[in-house]
Backbone:
């Protein structure tokens, strides 16, 4: 994405646990076949990843550590608002699609959920996952899913 379009792509990790704080020289050699001088700390890996990718970490429900404040705090230390909790794990694909769509269009969470065709309980779950990300990228009235309206001249409603 970055090389072809000059734009960051989307990178989503999924899990309910923390990850290791470094990638060891031995692991790098064994997995990638590369020789490096030293272990690579997680901070370095994340910083390089964020140069070219919009990284989100999804913590699905119905997993052992879904509700763990320590686990969420760990990921937030590295990703800030880009840690997404999902109340129903079977909606992971819809949440990821919603994240990409919301960030590409700058639409409010309600509009994103409607545009991807979700209603009822499923729509609420996806919106609940999107709103924290929206709050960090948009004014609070948009992140909450409503747009304030003001009457203009001639009775035209303006946003």
Residues:
């Amino acid at each position: 994405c970055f090389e072809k379009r000059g734009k960051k792509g989307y990178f989503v990790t999924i899990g309910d646990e923390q990850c290791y704080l470094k990638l060891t020289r031995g692991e790098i050699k064994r997995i990638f076949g590369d020789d490096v001088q030293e272990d690579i700390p997680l901070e370095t890996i994340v910083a390089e990843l964020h140069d070219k990718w919009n990284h989100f970490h999804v913590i699905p429900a119905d997993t052992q550590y879904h509700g763990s404040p320590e686990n969420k705090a760990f990921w937030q230390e590295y990703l800030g608002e880009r840690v997404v909790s999902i109340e129903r794990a079977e909606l992971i694909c819809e949440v990821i699609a919603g994240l990409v769509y919301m960030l590409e269009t700058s639409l409010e969470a309600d509009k994103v959920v409607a545009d991807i065709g979700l209603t009822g309980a499923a729509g609420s779950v996806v919106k609940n996952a999107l709103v924290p990300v929206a709050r960090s990228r948009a004014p609070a009235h948009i992140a909450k899913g409503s747009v304030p309206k003001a009457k203009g001249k001639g009775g035209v409603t303006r946003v």
Observations:
- The longest helix spans residues 120-137.
- The beta strands are 9-14, 22-23, 40-41, 53-60, 83-86, 150-151, 157-158.
